Amino acid sequence: MPKRRDILAIVLIVLPWTLLITVWHQSAIAPLLAIRKACHHLVKEIFIIPERLAVHHHRLSDEGAEGRREAGGQDSKEYCASDKDIVEVVRTEYVYTRPPPWSDVLPTIHIITPTYSRPVQKAELTRIANTFLHVPNLHWILIEDSQRRTPLVTSLLRETGLNYTHLNVETPKNFKIRGDTRDPRIPRGTMQRNLALRWLRETFKNNSQPGIVYFADDDNSYSLELFEEMRSTRKVSVWPVAFVGGLRYESPKVNAAGKVYGWKAVFDPHRPFAIDMAGFAINLKLILSKPQAYFKLRGVKGGYQESSLLRELVTLNDLEPKAANCTKILVWHTRTEKPVLVNEGKKGFTDPNMEI
Amino acid sequence: MAARMKLKLKTVFVLYFMVSLMGLIYALMQLGQHCDCAEHDLPKDRAISRLQEELYRLQGQIRQLEKAKQPEKKQPPKSSLSTIFVITPTYARLVQKAELTRLSQTFLHVPQLHWILVEDSPRKTPLVSNFLMKSGLTYTHLNVPTAKERKLQEGDPSWLKPRGVEQRNEGLRWLREDRKTEPGDNGQQGVVYFADDDNTYSLQLFEEMRSTQRVSVWPVGLVGGMKFESPVVEGGKVVRFHTGWRPSRPFPMDMAGFAVSLRLVLANPDACFDGEAPMGFLESSLLKGLVTADELEPKADNCTKVLVWHTRTEKPKMKREEALQVQGLGSDPAVEV
């Protein structure tokens, strides 16, 4: 028996297969796929859990306040009346009037809101505070366009129980908009937003806490899902905004690879970032790493204010599309009508001491 | 020698086939297995294990708390807080979803609140149905269309015809029907409030109205052409109304400025809003059948604080959208706004 030849042949056949099997065993292909899914799933679970926990904490702490609905488990009671299609569903999810407890895992969302005195100010701030009270790990930075911090805003912030920072800077008179006409040369709220950015840079200079920065105007409408979408921002994330640019909504254009390559807008779609202030969020680390990036104050064309900041921070390629690859509307650019106060007359009919 | 060679070749092939088959099967079995590679401790893994720990910890806490509360869970929520029934008429327009979203975010903070949302539509729209399902509130979804001649046309000023009359009446009708099935005194306890979907409500307002015995009133901001409209209180009683527009009305108030106790609503089954009433008399058309002015209960610190504002949302400018739609390039209608 030609043993040597046999053995050689056998070895030549078996060797490639053993190599293949060893390589397969060492490779991390299968585990990586599992990891990505697990991470996503876990992160979503973590976000929901603190809210459910909050209710229990409250029920334990204030035994006197009965009537808080139970959380944990959804008792949905559905029944249809015979004559009309009435569906009554008893949902037992979260109900509380204080912000959810602080979590050590979630990155903080720093919300920058410029505000100014006008009749609807307190109303706007009240309802936006009601929205923010549902968001865990939220830090509200409210900047007044005034010489001094007004007592209205100070007491409102204190009463909400939110985690806040109250700043103020007055826009010089020659920058201020006359009446209500939108002067495209002077975007409203710029100095206030820049002050907030400077405050963030000074406060978190030596702090490596994860955070997300979002510019929220006080008259827009936000869904709670939006805040969870922006929490996973690595550099700058974007999503569609309703009622801007004279359209039902403006949105980034996302290709099949999940990258932003353009803007679905009619008003000057060739802007570097044809997006509204409410349509993007920035990771705090990026803000801290580029200390020269601010909103441009002067010489900014209408609609270019957002670009003046974003172009110093990211390129189009780095943008992360959220809201299901920019197909869902999670924020609406609503504007509140200026109330008609004709009956006040010249001297003012109502008691000026009553705060509205 | 040749025969041996042939045999050799056959054996070689057979051997090769067997080995490759076994190797393939082994590899396929490895595909579904849990990979035990601790040496590849990627940062993602670390993040995951950290998150998992947090998740288990929190889940454990929830389980503990739920166990502690177990005996109470079995009984139906018998709270001493009376339910606030909020009747909101709504109609389809661009800002509808935005308005309802932020309204629900306010309501989620109020315990024992039952939202009765009545659409001005012949059918329940999927937008509102889906929204209510996800809202997390206790709700009732109704709908009743407004007759064509009563409806505001495009270009009509908002004060021309009263809005939401049929819807509010439908809300009242449902409430009366529903309470018939609820026996006992507990089912009669509650407060009815008419909330429009574009106003702004502070959370304190709902706590103020909960103690309504008959009809309670408070100031409303930014209404009637003034900073606020308010009842004037002297000696704990409402003596007159501070308003700049038609103060001669029996109840010169806005819809958002009063709440009626459920008992009173059920005791007067015919009391409802009169759509034929002249402008501004809508509230009076309901209240005059329920209560007299001196029976009104003033809230909000004897009507000195503004806890609700009659805000109105601008209609978004759609000129560009309309222009695009003419060209057939309008934004995707499948995306719900």
Beta content of chain A: 15-25%
Helix content of chain B: 25-40%
What is the average of the pLDDT values of chain B? Answer: 83
CATH class of the domain at 108-332 in chain A: Alpha Beta
| Reported CATH architecture of the domain at 83-151 and 160-217 and 254-298 in chain B | Alpha-Beta Complex
Characterize the main sheet of chain A. 7 strands, mixed
Structural class of chain B: alpha/beta
Distance between the termini of chain B: 84 Å
Write the H/E string of chain A, N to C: HHEEHEHEHEEHEEEEEHHEHE
Q: Identify low-pLDDT runs of chain A.
A: 42-96, 179-184
Kindly report the name of the CATH homologous superfamily of the domain at 83-151 and 160-217 and 254-298 in chain B.
Spore Coat Polysaccharide Biosynthesis Protein SpsA, Chain A
Shape label of chain B = elongated
**Strand-residue proportion of chain B:** 15-25%
Rough outline of chain A: elongated
Provide an overview of this structure:
- The complex is a heterodimer of chains A (356) and B (337).
- Chain A is of the alpha/beta class and 356 residues long.
- Chain A is 33% helix and 15% strand.
- Chain A is built from nine helices and 13 strands.
- Chain A has helices at 3-26, 29-61, 121-132, 151-160, 190-203, 224-230, 284-289, 305-310, 323-326, and strands at 88-89, 108-115, 138-144, 164-168, 211-215, 221-222, 236-238, 241-242, 249-254, 260-264, 280-283, 319-321, 331-332.
- Chain A has a seven-stranded mixed β-sheet with strand order 4-3-2-5-11-7-12, with helices on both faces. A three-stranded antiparallel β-sheet of chain A has the order 8-9-10, with no helix packed on it. A two-stranded antiparallel ribbon of chain A has the order 6-13.
- In chain A, strand 8 and strand 9 form a beta hairpin.
- Chain A is elongated.
- Chain B is α/β, with parallel strands linked by helices and 337 residues long.
- Chain B is built from eleven helices and twelve strands.
- Chain B is elongated, with a radius of gyration of 32 Å.
- The model of chain B is unreliable at 71-78 (pLDDT under 50).
- A seven-stranded mixed β-sheet of chain B has the order 3-2-1-4-10-6-11, sandwiched between helices. Chain B has a three-stranded antiparallel β-sheet with strand order 7-8-9, with no helix packed on it.
- Chain B has a domain at 83-151 and 160-217 and 254-298: Spore Coat Polysaccharide Biosynthesis Protein SpsA, Chain A, CATH 3.90.550.10.
